[in-house]
Each structure stands twice: as C-alpha cells, then as structure tokens.
Amino acid sequence: MTDLWNERAEAYRTSQTHATGDDLDLVVEWCEPAAGVTVLDIATGGGHVARRLREAGATVVTTDAAPGMQPDVVAPADDLPFAEASFDVVACRIAAHHFPDALEALKEMARVARERVVICDNVFTSESAEEADRLRDPSHVRNYGVAEWHSFFELAGLQVADEAFMVRDTDFEDWLARTETPADDRPRVRELLTGRIHDGRLDLPTVVLKGVKS
Ligand SMILES: C[S@@+](CC[C@H](N)C(=O)[O-])C[C@H]1O[C@@H](n2cnc3c(N)ncnc32)[C@H](O)[C@@H]1O
Asked: Domain holding 156: CATH number?
C-alpha cells in the first residue's frame, strides 16, 4: 500500500479538505503547542498538522509509512522507532482508518507519549459506507465508532479527557479523484453513500479525542 500513498503525495499536500478545517483547528488546540512542547505527528500525509503546530512554536517530528510523504521518519504507526515517553504529545489526524491494526498503533502512540494523545478520524456510519470507502480506496481498512475508540483508549492505557464530534464535508468528485477511483466504480460508490451527499459535497462524520496517560 505504500506505493499507492507515494503516488498520492501531491494530492494530499494540496487537498483543501486536509489543509484546513475545524477538526484541524481542534487537533492543534488540544496539542497545546508552544515553544518547548514536543509533538509527534503520526501518518503526517501532506504535513498539515505538523505545519500548524510548528507555526505555533512546537517542535515537531513527523512519521509516515510512505516515503513519498517526506516524513522526518518513515515508520508504520504500529511500530514506532522511539523510546517510551519521547514526546509530550502524539497526534494522528484522519489516518487511523488506513492502519492494519489501529489498536496496536494507538498503544504505540501511548507508549511514546509523555502526556497525551490526540486522535481525529472519520467515524463508522454503516457497512454500506465501509464498502464505499473500500471501493473508493483499496487502502481503507475500517472506520471505528466512538464507543470502539473509547475501548481502544482504555486498552492503550489512555483516559478520554475530551472529545468532540463534527461533520466535515468535502467535494465528492475531488474525493474520488484524490484516490483515482476507477470511473466504472464511481456510480456504485455514490449509490452506497446515498443520503450523505448534498449539492455535490460528501458529509464526513468525524471524531476528535484527547487521551491522557492513566
Ligand atoms: C489521509 S492521509 C493523512 C492526513 C494527514 N494526517 C493530515 O492531517 O492531512 C493518510 C496517511 O496515512 C499514511 N499511512 C497509511 N497507512 C499507514 C500506516 N500503517 N502507518 C503509518 N502511516 C500510514 C499514508 O501514507 C498517508 O500519508
């Protein structure tokens, strides 16, 4: 799957859905960036979380499984090459649904974090929507419900200190173009997502969770 992500690097760097948004603002706020604060940005993609945290004065290290995303360190989220408590905060935005083992990745984030972990991801809505996600993007593994995230946090030794639910949206055609979904599959993706597309924009239910080490 990393080859696929290497090819997509530019699309994710320039994606407005990733470069901006209330979810991005909240992830940055909950990282409490400031001079002297160290943050690890997992699955950095186009680097939007890292950019915003650096602008706010934090010292940031980025990781990603795909070298094409040009992270500081190439590493899968479930096997991080850092010692315990290496960073004040670990952040991971809109990426966990691609991880083969999201719980193992969260445990790794908790291990290398000194204080807290901030996660933002799309939320499970239905099996039809999961089918649409997999058809649109073969690297999609699974979106999780809020209750599943709570149990992951508990198993990773994190207490949920804050959480927010929001509905982001994105241009539906741009969303398909970003992953180069074959033209033949697009009508089926649209059909599976009936009710979530309005005026050409797709609703993306999203959760942001702040976990503190317990
Ligand atoms: C949607 S992009 C991330 C968006 C980015 N965090 C942001 O806020 O704009 C998903 C990223 O997850 C990375 N990725 C996929 N599977 C991964 C894994 N198992 N471990 C680490 N990174 C992974 C991809 O290479 C890609 O850069």
From this structure: 3.40.50.150
Number of domains in the chain: 1
CA distances from 1 to 141, 183, 188 (A): 11, 21, 23
Q: pTM for this one?
A: 0.97
The predicted pLDDT at position 83 comes to 98
CB 104 within 8 A of CB 156: no
- pLDDT at residue 119 above 80? yes
Quote the ligand 1 centre to 95 CA distance (angstroms). Answer: 5
Residue 53 in contact with ligand 1 by CB distance below 6 A: no
94 falls within a domain: yes
Q: What range defines the domain where residue 148 resides?
A: 2-125+141-169+206-213
> Residue 1 pLDDT > 80, yes or no?
no
**Any ligand 1 atom below 6 A from CB of 46:** yes
Residue 183 lies in a domain: no
